[in-house]
Amino acid sequence: MTGTRRIVGIIGGTGVDGIFDEGTRTSHRVSTPWGAPSAPVERGRVGELDVLFLARHGVGHTIPPHRVNYRANIDALKSLGADSIVTVSSVGSLKADLPPGTFVVPDQFVDFTKSRPTTFFDGGRVYHVSLADPFCPELSARAIAAGAAAGHAFASRKTYVCVEGPRFSTRAESNYLRGFADVIGMTLVPEVTLARERGLCYACLAMVTDFDVWADHPVEAKEIVETMARNVERMQSVLRGLLPRLPGPKGCECERALDSAAL
Question: Domains along the chain?
Answer without folding.
Answer: 7-248 (3.40.50.1580)
